[in-house]
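Give me C-alpha cells for this 95-residue protein.
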Amino acid sequence: MTDRFIRAKTGLDLVDRVLEAQQEEYGFGFAQALDYVPSLTVPMFYAQVKNDVYTFNQKTGQNDIQLIMNAPPTEHGIVWIGPDQSYTIWYRPTV
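Here you go.
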C-alpha cells in the first residue's frame, strides 16, 4: 500500500530508499495496517474515497480499505465519499 502512495506522489520508485531512511531515522518501517487490525475488539466505521489514487489498487480493482475493513472480527461499516458515492454499508460478522 505504501509503495503505491510513494510512487504516485513522486513518480519515482523510491520505496526501498524511503523505507531505509525511515528505519535509520526513526527505528521503524512503514505502518502495515493488515498486521494490526485483525486484533481490534471494537466496532469500526470507516470513511473513504472509493477511487482514491493512493488507496485504489488498479491490479485488483478494489480499494485497500476493503482489505483493512474486512480483517477485524468486529462489526464494521464504511461510507464511500465522492461525486458518485454517498452510501453507507454496515457489516455484522457471523458467529
